[in-house]
Amino acid sequence: MISHPSRHCTVELQALPSRIGQVRRIVSAQLRYWHLDSLIDRASLGVTELLSNVHRHAQPDKTCTVEIELLLDRLTVSVRDHDPRLPVVADVDAIAPLSTCGRGLAMVAAVSESWGVRPDGESGKVVWFTLPTPSAALTAPAHRPLRAAPEKPARRFAEVAPAADVLRPEHAPARSAVAG
């Protein structure tokens, strides 16, 4: 029995530096909406690295699709582009210490539970990674009652949780598009 339905968000874009920041903000907002704040940093880092690879390496165009999907206890983030060439994982030990590139997929591997790449027909590929979700996020009720918060010490900005939105119904899959 599946107690929680799939949650899904798709963003289509041109993998340009200005768009990468926008997608990072969309991913962060979607994870906050799903009450998965603890995954924001790792998901943002991973999607940034994958989109940077599309920007740097994909031919003939930079059009791609970012997809985030929550299934039970896994968050999967994937980037689909139109270049059939599969990425080459660099030997991190062979990269010059001051080099500014070549470590992206190693970082994705380090922050994720698993990652991989698969061909997408003859005209592209999908690079993906997964993050385990905290069990509390999956067992939390969709609508939390408002209640007074106990006194707590001030927290850093990044740790402040979003306010409960009791008026919003359970959401349908989000679809976003960022024009390139």
Task: Give structural notes.
The protein has 180 residues and is of the alpha+beta class. It has four helices and six strands, in the order E-H-H-E-E-H-E-E-H-E. It has helices spanning 17-33, 40-57, 104-111, 135-139; strands spanning 7-14, 63-71, 74-81, 114-119, 125-132, 174-177. Strands 4-5-3-2-1-6 form a six-stranded mixed β-sheet, covered by helices on one side. Helix 1 (17-33) runs antiparallel to helix 2 and helix 2 (40-57) packs antiparallel against helix 3 (104-111). The chain is globular, with a radius of gyration of 18 Å.
Helix proportion = 25-40%
- Strand percentage: 15-25%
- The counted number of beta strands is 6
Adjacency order of strands in the biggest sheet: 4-5-3-2-1-6
Low-confidence stretches: 136-180
Shape: globular
Which sequence of SSEs, written as H and E, runs from N to C?
EHHEEHEEHE
Largest sheet: 6 strands, mixed
Summarize model confidence as the mean pLDDT: 75
The secondary structure category is alpha+beta
Q: Alpha-carbon distance between the termini?
A: 41 Å
Integer-rounded radius of gyration = 18 Å
Number of helices: 4
What labels would you give this structure?
single chain; 180 residues; alpha+beta; 6-stranded mixed β-sheet; 4 helices; 6 strands; 24% strand; globular
Brief account:
The protein is of the alpha+beta class.
Q: What is the element layout, followed by pairings?
A:
Layout: E1 7-14, H1 17-33, H2 40-57, E2 63-71, E3 74-81, H3 104-111, E4 114-119, E5 125-132, H4 135-139, E6 174-177
Parallel strand pairs: 1-6
Antiparallel strand pairs: 1-2, 2-3, 3-5, 4-5
Helix pairs in contact: 1-2, 2-3
